DNA sequence: TTGAAAGCGCTAACAT
DNA sequence: ATGTTAGCGCTTTCAA
């Protein structure tokens, strides 16, 4: 085939020409602004012309004109967490869409936070939702300077300059550790995933475990573990005699449990193990896995908050707290 | 606090003013186009001014001017599949970034494909990567008309108008079913997830199972199942006497296995079960789960393909095939 | 009820 | 070696 296989993309000017009206009229009709401004006959003409040409708006042009885009940005790291989070993201996407925003998940794991924030800022999103640890003060400043209206962080403590949804990673560790200690465990391990992007969360969870152990004659040992069977098996074989484990999350916890079983160490007899996320897998594991459940809250509320912050920027502050509680099962 | 908490975002004109040069010069310096055009002294001045003002480019303006954005769009559904895919996405994001593109995961599960394609088209992405079943001919046409250079589909058969990475969902079912039949199973179940967005894949996998059963005196029954313990348990209790199961993927397969075990039905004694994805969880399950492994291939190659297609659009065609093979374990 | 026109921030062809 | 300027597609004020 030679030449362009597709007709040049139609602009609103093309639509206007075909319909025999001005570009202004086209804009009013297609966006339904100022109802009653354009007569029904003209509306129909414009609609037909747009349809015929296969007209599709140009987000960049609109954003340029409006001074801001309708994008809401979120690091894609979040999406990889599991079904719980990804279902919730679906709801969030839907709720934001109803407010006229487009949720966009953006990668960039592992890179320099300020560099990542820069790429985000170039997209001039209306809002950014991100884990606090990835949002250095410099990054927040950069986003605001670039005109991002709403920066919403999730994390253990308020991020300066951003609204913060309090999500205490350390509380995950604290809850699990308190339970293990109550069960009589005194030598606690905390699994520290080797996978990129997880280290900041792991450190906070470890801190929570340490806090629970404080002044209680309990020893806490961080234990690195990659998400890999052979490594888990090697760890189980040379298990350093610890009697309680907080597994970072359910996946790592389950991996370790199987490895321990494989080398003949009883769970919970010899070692108690607790996870986090309360996946369905935790419930159906054998033994069923004690886990910290995270209540993500209604996505619609977060969407509404985002909308409010974009419409009328207010003082940054603490917004809401993600609640969590322990579900005790047979692994502890 | 009153007034704007942040300085107005600087434009390239501001940078030019501060540096005492023209906007053109700023553009040349910051983009490093035409090296040698600007003297070192001027370059330094411009850089310093940009730094001082916290200048950040404006992607929308650049896209408007260039006629296309540097966005590569992919449905976020993909991301929810699991660790295998999400790690791969990380690599893809990285590889695309090195070509100057920004990978964006976009939600929109469940909505009308053409409506979704419309929202995508408005962003004028350079490329769209999507599962074929979501790309109707109308959707592909819409994207092309909107100027999207590269539409790359994944699916069982070539999508008209798009390059296609052949990914035969039916082959997943065929491989698993052939194995089950070889093991002497004659009454096969195929789990059909109730979760939104998964039905198109499930139908194709079911078709693969049917193909394997063809002319072999094997009965195939689709069995709906939501990802939920109670539902799995109810299914197991009223198990319709089928002796082989293709579980859609590892997660559903594992869920069913546990439910069957719970009601005293032996796996693989009474029922053989196979999954797909070959998650680590399949390997550590008890019994270890037979699963179809999917070889996603190098993300760098796909990134290079995307780049090539954007630079010099060519005839759509079949690009590459995602390979898969069965890993036989104890569940069959 | 509709049209004309300015201008969002950027790049690149052309001029100096 | 650097500057001037047109124009990408859109919305919205102002004028008719």
How would you characterize the largest beta sheet of chain A? 6 strands, parallel
**CATH superfamily grouping of the largest domain in chain A:** Response regulator
Average pLDDT metric of chain A: 89
Domain count of chain A: the total is 3
How many DSSP E strands of chain A?
A: 12
Q: Extract low-pLDDT stretches of chain A.
A: 1-5
Strand content of chain A: 15-25%
Overall geometry of chain A: elongated
H/E element sequence of chain A: HHHHEHEHEHEEHEHEHEHEHEHEE
CATH topology of the largest domain in chain A: Rossmann fold
Q: What quaternary form is this?
A: homodimer
Kindly provide the name of the CATH class of the largest domain in chain A.
Answer: Alpha Beta
What features would you describe in this structure?
The structure is a homodimer of 332-residue chains. By secondary structure, chain A is of the alpha/beta class. Chain A contains 13 helices and 12 strands. A 6-stranded parallel sheet of chain A has the order 2-1-3-4-5-11. In chain A, helix 1 (12-19) packs across helix 2 (23-31). The longest helix of chain A has 16 residues, at 83-98. The first copy, chain A, is elongated, with a radius of gyration of 26 Å. Mean pLDDT of chain A is 89; it is low at 1-5. At the A-B interface, helix 4, helix 5, strand 2, helix 6 and helix 7 of A face helix 4, helix 5, strand 2, helix 6 and helix 7 of B. Chain B binds a DNA duplex (16 and 16 nucleotides) through residues 11-13, 21-25, 27-28, 31, 33-34, 36-39, 42, 57-58, 60-67. Chains A, B: Pfam families: LacI, Peripla_BP_3. Chains A, B: Residues 10-66 form the HTH lacI-type domain.
């Amino acid at each position: 085939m030679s030449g362009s296989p597709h007709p040049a993309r139609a602009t609103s000017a093309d639509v206007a020409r075909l319909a025999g009206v001005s570009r202004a009229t086209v804009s009013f009709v297609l966006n339904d602004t100022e109802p009653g401004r354009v007569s029904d006959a003209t509306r129909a003409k414009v609609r037909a012309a747009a349809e015929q040409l296969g007209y599709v708006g140009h987000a960049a042009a609109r954003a340029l004109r409006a001074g801001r885009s309708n994008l809401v940005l979120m690091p894609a790291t979040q999406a990889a967490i599991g079904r719980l989070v990804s279902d919730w993201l679906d709801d969030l996407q839907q709720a934001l869409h109803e407010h006229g925003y487009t949720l966009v998940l953006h990668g960039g794991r592992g890179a320099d936070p300020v560099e990542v924030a820069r790429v985000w800022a170039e997209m001039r999103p209306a809002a950014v939702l991100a884990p606090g640890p990835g949002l250095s003060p410099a990054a927040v400043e950069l986003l605001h300077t670039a005109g991002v209206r709403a920066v919403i962080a999730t994390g253990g403590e308020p991020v300066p300059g951003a609204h913060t949804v309090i999500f205490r990673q350390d509380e995950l560790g604290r809850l699990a550790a308190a339970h293990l200690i109550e069960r009589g465990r005194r030598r606690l391990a905390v699994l520290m995933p080797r996978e990129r992007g997880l280290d900041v969360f792991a450190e906070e969870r470890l801190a929570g475990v340490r806090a629970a152990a404080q002044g209680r004659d309990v020893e806490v040992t961080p234990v690195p573990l990659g998400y890999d069977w052979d490594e888990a098996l090697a760890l189980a074989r040379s298990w350093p005699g610890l009697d309680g484990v907080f597994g970072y999350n359910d996946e790592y916890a389950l991996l370790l449990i199987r490895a321990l079983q494989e080398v003949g160490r009883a769970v919970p007899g010899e070692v108690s193990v607790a996870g986090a996320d309360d996946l369905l897998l935790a419930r159906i594991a054998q033994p069923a896995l004690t886990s910290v459940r995270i209540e993500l809250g209604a996505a619609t509320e977060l969407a509404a908050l985002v909308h409010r912050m974009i419409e009328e920027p207010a003082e940054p502050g603490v917004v809401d707290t993600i609640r969590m509680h322990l579900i005790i099962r047979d692994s502890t």
